[in-house]
Amino acid sequence: DTEVTQTPKHLVMGMTNKKSLKCEQHMGHRAMYWYKQKAKKPPELMFVYSYEKLSINESVPSRFSPECPNSSLLNLHLHALQPEDSALYLCASSQDRGQGRGGSTVQYFGPGTRLLVL
Amino acid sequence: GDSVTQMEGPVTLSEEAFLTINCTYTATGYPSLFWYVQYPGEGLQLLLKATKADDKGSNKGFEATYRKETTSFHLEKGSVQVSDSAVYFCALSDTGANSKLTFGKGITLSVRP
Fold it and tell me: How far is CA B75 from the centre of its chain?
């Protein structure tokens, strides 16, 4: 099973709202990722967690706050977003050879959450 | 830094036509190479991969060969179907500590009945 699940599938929020996106995998992967994808563009990496610790933050604004409560779950907390943050948010997971060692492994993507900020 | 270049699109083909989508890369070291496919309204699915030179990845009738001498990983299919209509992304992952994916711009394929 190579399934990554994401909820909700769609989300509409105002600029003053607080919401959270959720991602789950049960493949035993210890690396998890958040990507943002605008229409007709490739995904852009936002955050990487390795063994439940944040290892990469691609200079993402603080209105996006990631959280990895355990090895199977990844959340993205959203607060005071702007209309230009409207996009498809994708979660992915992969095996990890170990902290700081990385390694070239396959990333498996979830179906995404389509976010609209009004 | 690493980069992936895909041919410009979109591409429109008739059913049963031959498909080639070009992909070239620039990377230090020995990256792994991937093709991902994104169907309308969905996330990315791994289509195939190759981890070292001369490896051939294949899946669902699609093939791509890791060519180190030409730094290429072109995607081919002998006979496309309407159901192959999607966006195709070529990507590489280096073997460094970050395991980051570098994507090409993607190309939209439309297959007509």
Answer: 5
Contact A102 B31 (CB under 8 A): no
Q: Do A96 and A110 touch, CB atoms closer than 8 A?
A: no
What is the per-residue DSSP string for B68-80? TTTTB--EEESS-
Number of neighbours of residue A22 by Cβ within 10 angstroms: 17
| Residue-level pLDDT at B43 | 92
Contacts A39 to B, Cβ<8 Å = none
| Contact B11/A at CB under 8 A | no
Query: Is residue B97 predicted with pLDDT exceeding 60?
Result: no
> Is A8 in CB contact (< 8 Å) with chain B?
no
Spans in chain A with pLDDT lower than 70: 1-2, 97-104
Closest by CA position to A109, among listed B45, B102, B56: B45
Model confidence at B28: pLDDT above 60: yes
**Separation between Cα atoms, residue B97 and residue B79, nearest integer Å:** 39
Query: Which residues in chain B touch residue A2, judged by CB atoms under 8 angstroms apart?
Result: 46
Element (H, E) at B50: strand B44-50
Determine if residue A52 is left, alpha or beta; phi over 0 gives left, psi from -120 to 50 gives alpha, anything else beta: left
Residue B55's pLDDT is 94
Q: So what's the pLDDT on residue A97?
A: 58
pLDDT given at position B29: 80
